[in-house]
Amino acid sequence: GPCTECSCSSVKETDRNTSNIKKKESGDQSFIPKIFFGTRTHKQISQITRELKRTAYSSVPMSILSSRDYTCIHPVVSGSGSSRNEMCVELLEGKHGKSCLYYHGVHKLTEHHALQSAHMMYQAWDIEDLVSLGRKLRACAYFAARELMVGADIVFCPYNYLLDPQIRESMEINLKGQVVILDEAHNIEDCARESVSYGVAETQLRAAREELDFMVNNNIRQKDHEPLRAVCCSLT
């Protein structure tokens, strides 16, 4: 029966039943939040997933979000160094008449995990496990991890995936109503500072100053360009 000491005792049973009927008729389901677990490095994610395997929750659907540096298996793109992101986008857009066959095989990885879950064989995994399986199935681990996030109960990722609004948007991460856990949260200040910082080389500053000189000398929006020129001069 209802408690006698708290407010639920004042709720009439008929009101409660009516509410339940309405929920059933509208097909309303309780919202189950995801857990986003942020860490400082990818190495720490490996340690945490290793510990997850040892718990009773090792079979819980999960995903790990990481950059193409760790997950790209395309032989040309993965060996391209700093231009991986640009080359990947070009392949996806088919700019040079070529496409990424690994991207088109993403469903193989997601279906593999779905089958494991259906047969009660699902176990917590690490990035290396997903990449290794991706190579075996010729499927992109980077986009598979993003697909697996949709049905995951817990998602592991570096701090900046949760803190940087641009990364959140590109990875389609919505934190509203979700659970966020930050491992070693004393590092958050540095990560937040990096997320809103930008590195500029001296050559870039000099080039910008020359362009601003041209603008000011030709009376093009002087009020806007003179303060910017002053900033470039002071920095150089």
TrEMBL record:
Keywords: ATP-binding, Hydrolase, Nucleotide-binding
Highest taxon listed in the record's lineage: Eukaryota
Annotated ranges, domain Helicase ATP-binding: 1-232
Gene3D superfamilies found in the cross-reference section: P-loop containing nucleotide triphosphate hydrolases
SMART domains documented for this protein: DEXDc2
MF terms (GO), sorted A to Z: ATP binding; DNA binding; DNA helicase activity; hydrolase activity, acting on acid anhydrides, in phosphorus-containing anhydrides
Pfam families named among the record's database cross-references: DEAD_2
GO cellular component, one term: nucleus
Swiss-Prot/TrEMBL GO biological process terms: double-strand break repair involved in meiotic recombination; nucleotide-excision repair
Record-linked InterPro entries: DinG/Rad3-like, Helic_SF1/SF2_ATP-bd_DinG/Rad3, Helicase-like_DEXD_c2, P-loop_NTPase, RAD3-like_helicase_DEAD
Protein name listed in UniProt: FANCJ protein
Provenance organism: Rostratula benghalensis
